[in-house]
Structures are given as structure tokens and as C-alpha cells.
Design goal:
Blueprint (H helix, E strand, L loop, with lengths): L8 H6 L5 E8 L8 E9 L22 H11 L2 E7 L1 H7 L1 H17 L8 E6 L15 E4 L2 H4 L1 H24 L5 H4 L5 H10 L19
Helix pairs in contact: 2-6, 3-4
Function: Endonuclease that specifically degrades the RNA of RNA-DNA hybrids.
Catalytic activity: Endonucleolytic cleavage to 5'-phosphomonoester
Subcellular location: Cytoplasm
Length: 219
């Protein structure tokens, strides 16, 4: 199957209506353990005239071996980037949808801390639902776009940046809990992960409010 590279068609059109775009994409939504992370990538009109980095795709379409180099190119290409995090304990406390909103809001704040202004900015969000406006402390102009992580290069950048950051985090957690094999499954419902849960129970990094023992195997 031929994988079509993401383009800047939508970004260039939207940048005729706004000063800059803050593109967002989440990773870890369906995991059993570990945080939810949302990547942010900032694009302005000058940046949208630059060539899309080689190999940039939605993170799911980039091999694990290549993702770090692609993420590094993506971070150098955009004007600013960051990742917002919500822990497994917070997911248990507030539920997954609000957790996504909090992670997205924290991703936006991470680029604000780098000097990016949200005044005149448009938030381009992968998906069909605006989950960030309700929790962000200031008004945002949000545009959800289905398959933006596949089709829009700036969202692909946010996707791969977040994926590499979260995978590294899960690798660090694996050192303290090696039986769950998080270095391999990244906290998702692999067969080895569920077998370890049945044998050992839940760690402090599991989303204990979820019906973990009965979830389908994803890998």
C-alpha cells in the first residue's frame, strides 16, 4: 500500500485567516498504563513555505527505529513544539476525555512558555471533537479535522514528536517494572502485558479505573 505524504495545503489556506497554527495530536489514549500525551507543533506562514521534512508521516506510519530521527527533523522544522502530559492517576480521576483536554491544554501552554501567543492563533486538532476548549484557561479558536495526523504535515509533526516522547517515557518506566514489558508494548494491551497483569496485578502506573483484565489484545 502506498502511503501518501502529508501536505501543507490546509495549513497554508488557514494561515490566510490566522497568524499561526498550533497543531495538536494525542498518543496513549487507549493504553492500559502510562500517561496520555499530546504533542504541539507551531506553524506560521513563513514556516508553511518550507519543504516538509523527509519521512514525516503520522507517527503510526513511521517505524519505531526511524521515529526519533523524524521527530528531530520535525521539531527543527516547526517554529516551536512541546508535549502535554496527563498521568494514569489523573486519567482515573477525571476520565479519558477530560484527560485528553488537559493534556492538550498543557501542550498549548508548553509552547506559550516558549513565547508563542495564542492571540490570533488557530488550534488544529486531529479528530472530530474539540476536547481542549472546555479545560483551557483562556479562549482558543479550535478546528478539529478528521485524519489531520495523516494529511496535515504540521499535525504529523505533533504526532511523531509526542509518540517519541511517550515511548521514551514508557521505556524509563519499564526499568522499574520490567515484567510488564513496557519497552515493547508501550503500555498497550499486548498479550504479554495482560498476562503480567494477571500474574502480578496492577502497578501504580496502570489506569486502575479501566476494566483491564477484559480488554481486547491490540498487539
Amino acid at each position: 500500500m502506498t502511503v501518501v505524504a502529508p501536505k501543507l495545503t490546509l495549513e497554508r489556506r488557514l494561515l490566510g485567516e490566522c497568524d499561526l497554527i498550533i497543531s495538536l495530536d494525542e498518543v496513549g489514549r487507549g493504553a492500559l498504563a502510562g500517561p496520555v500525551a499530546v504533542g504541539a507543533a507551531v506553524m506560521d506562514a513563513a514556516g508553511a513555505r518550507r519543504r516538509v521534512p523527509e519521512g514525516l508521516r503520522d507517527s503510526k506510519l513511521v517505524t519505531e527505529r526511524r521515529r526519533p530521527e523524524v521527530a528531530a527533523r520535525a521539531a527543527s522544522w516547526v517554529q516551536a513544539s512541546g508535549v502535554g502530559w496527563v498521568s494514569a492517576a489523573e486519567v482515573d480521576e477525571v476520565g479519558i476525555m477530560r484527560a485528553l483536554g488537559l493534556a492538550a491544554s498543557r501542550a498549548v501552554l508548553s509552547v506559550v512558555e516558549q513565547g508563542v501567543s495564542t492571540a490570533g492563533a488557530l488550534v488544529l486538532l486531529d479528530g472530530n471533537h474539540d476536547y481542549v476548549s472546555a479545560v483551557h484557561p483562556a479562549p482558543l479558536r479550535v478546528r478539529p479535522v478528521i485524519k489531520a495526523d495523516r494529511d496535515c504535515a504540521s499535525v504529523s509533526a505533533a504526532s511523531v514528536i509526542a509518540k517519541v516522547a511517550r515511548d521514551a517515557y514508557m521505556g524509563d518506566l519499564h526499568e522499574g517494572h520490567p515484567d510488564y514489558q513496557w519497552n515493547r508494548n508501550k503500555g498497550y494491551a499486548s498479550l504479554e502485558h495482560r498476562d503480567a497483569i494477571r500474574s502480578l496485578g496492577l502497578s501504580p502506573h496502570h489506569r486502575s479505573s479501566w476494566a483491564i483484565a477484559d480488554v481486547p489484545t491490540l498487539f
